[in-house]
């Protein structure tokens, strides 16, 4: 299958193929004039501070962000801006390789260590998405393409740094839930947790009102940390409306995912989000998806079901991930399958 990048670079392209055209299009997709909303900002340096008062304040803010938004921005996280920029540059370098070079990494199964392709799951997608991707499993074992030169080393360091940030955030979330700081880390075996490096490319689209970068969906793991190349296109669902999300320089966009909703017994909801495309600029994003170990059965924490009955059925994370990634993406339809009626 031809990449969207190659398609977008076709001479005289003025319309998109029918296979990329959504018939029941949502006009709010291109509404960039929505009222400005104040997305929660979490100062990571205070979350790891030795000052108990400062830390208690930011833990409270984190709990409110998780409960009211399922989404927040993390600043002062300690990951060098130069490393974040290098990781994005590496992603661009990969997408700039020839179709033949990228073909080497065309995986078939959702748990293939290295997989690049287009759309979401082109084998089952009824309409294709205006997106190319590279997905690499980087923990508990590190895999990575050997090209472009130096990209693997940058990705290894970046993934390690992000894991430290994730551990700090999850420690704060554990406390917000009234649990020990290391409860999520230990309960879900994050020492062997799955971490995926997901690069997304959304080239300019001649008919952005007819296409979709990624459909409304929630992520399967615990937390996703995302950066982008300065071109907006991420939208989250908040209070029943779509909200445009724009990053602060040198920050992470963080969203709660399905396994954290399950573990918190529904107290913290995974956020539904989507990617929109535009006519003039290439948007690129880099998401680091962080989840439990593949063999961990994830259900509501035992401490959280004493006063509230379990709202979800436990399922092995590997099974959950495979089911979600091999189906059509549709909001929180996968999460609905493990809800207790």
UniProtKB/TrEMBL annotation:
The keyword Oxidoreductase applies. The lineage of its organism: Eukaryota, Viridiplantae, Streptophyta, Embryophyta, Tracheophyta. Residues 192-292 form the Fe2OG dioxygenase domain. GO terms for molecular function: L-ascorbic acid binding; metal ion binding; oxidoreductase activity. Gene3D superfamilies: B-lactam Antibiotic, Isopenicillin N Synthase, Chain. This is Fe2OG dioxygenase domain-containing protein. Belongs to the iron/ascorbate-dependent oxidoreductase family. InterPro entries: DIOX_N, IPNS-like_FE2OG_OXY, IPNS-like_sf, Oxoglu/Fe-dep_dioxygenase_dom, Plant_2OG-oxidoreductases.
């Amino acid at each position: 299958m031809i990449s969207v990048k190659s398609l977008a670079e076709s001479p005289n392209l003025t319309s998109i193929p029918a296979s990329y055209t959504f018939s029941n299009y949502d006009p709010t997709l291109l509404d960039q004039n929505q009222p400005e909303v104040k997305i929660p900002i979490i100062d990571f340096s205070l979350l790891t501070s030795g000052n108990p008062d400062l830390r208690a304040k930011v833990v409270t803010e984190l709990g409110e962000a998780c409960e009211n938004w399922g989404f927040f921005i993390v600043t002062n996280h300690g990951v060098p801006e130069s490393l974040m920029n290098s990781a994005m540059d590496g992603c661009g370098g990969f997408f700039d390789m020839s179709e033949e070079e990228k073909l080497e990494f065309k995986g078939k199964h959702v748990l293939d260590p290295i997989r690049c392709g287009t759309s979401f799951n082109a084998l089952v997608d009824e309409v294709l998405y205006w997106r190319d991707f590279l997905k690499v499993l980087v923990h508990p074992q590190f895999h990575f393409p050997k090209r472009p030169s130096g990209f693997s080393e940058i990705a290894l360091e970046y993934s390690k740094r992000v894991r430290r940030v994730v551990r700090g955030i999850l420690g704060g979330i554990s406390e917000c839930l009234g649990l020990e700081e290391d409860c999520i880390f230990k309960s879900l075996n994050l020492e062997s947790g799955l971490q995926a490096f997901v690069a997304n490319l959304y080239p300019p689209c001649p008919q952005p009102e007819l296409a979709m970068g990624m459909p409304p969906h929630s992520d399967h793991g615990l937390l996703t940390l995302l950066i982008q190349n300065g071109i907006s296109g991420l939208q989250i669902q908040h209070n029943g409306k779509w909200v445009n999300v724009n990053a602060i320089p040198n920050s992470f966009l963080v969203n709660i995912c399905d396994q954290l909703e399950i573990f918190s017994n529904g107290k913290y909801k995974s956020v539904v989000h989507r990617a929109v495309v535009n006519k003039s600029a290439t948007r690129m994003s880099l998401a680091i998806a962080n989840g439990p170990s593949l063999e961990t059965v994830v259900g509501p924490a035992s401490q959280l079901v004493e006063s509230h009955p379990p709202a979800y059925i436990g399922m092995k994370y590997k099974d959950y991930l495979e089911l979600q990634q091999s189906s059509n993406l549709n909001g929180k339809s996968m999460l609905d399958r493990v809800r207790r009626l």
